Amino acid sequence: MCEDLIAGLAGYPIAIVSGLAIGIDTIAHKAALKAKLSTIAFPGSGLDRSVLHPSSNKKLADEIIYAGGALVAEYEPLMPAGIHTFPKRNRLMAALSKASLIIEAGEKSGTLITARLALDYNREVLAVPGSIFNPGSKGTNSLIRLGATPITCSKDILEALGFNTPTDEESKQASLFSNLSENEQKIVELLQVEPLPRDELIMLSSLSAALANSNLAVLEIKGLIKETMGEVRLA
Known about the structure:
3-stranded parallel sheet; 11 helices; 45% helix; 12% strand
């Protein structure tokens, strides 16, 4: 779920903030890198490589920096991680982020601390609903009952952050236009300027009549163009 939700944010000016820990944090950072989104890590330790926590994520930390992200800590560089350092860093993540997304949380999960901090800082709290029989969903379902925004797809996140998202029909159209052959694209570009009579369109396309007509037929079948009143126009 975490991977799918973050993948759907690709192309938007969004940074993913997490704690570099093993588990969901690692998944979130890696998904952000894969989607070419900036990502910021708040380890529960200082930033010196000798104490960076967890040590197994040193390579991931390097990848985050290389991709233009950041590692942030308020601790001295050589401060090792401890039980008390994680809740403290959570307040920084909650404060920096416009919204906190809770993928899964038990009834007494430490993740709920971050959710409460986000509310204290007047930030959005987003939560993924789950089965009432799943102990890992008790926390998220409780947050939704208390007013958190339920998240079931990437579009829900984008809307919660204030982005205008395309309708299903617009997305379908965009997908159709993105999968055109070179000749089809040439015809569409001509029609984006203005509707044209078929003969004039064929002449401007520099395609043979047979090739132009076959491409026009395909575009019409796809629902991208139509011919009315002697002119071919975008549908």
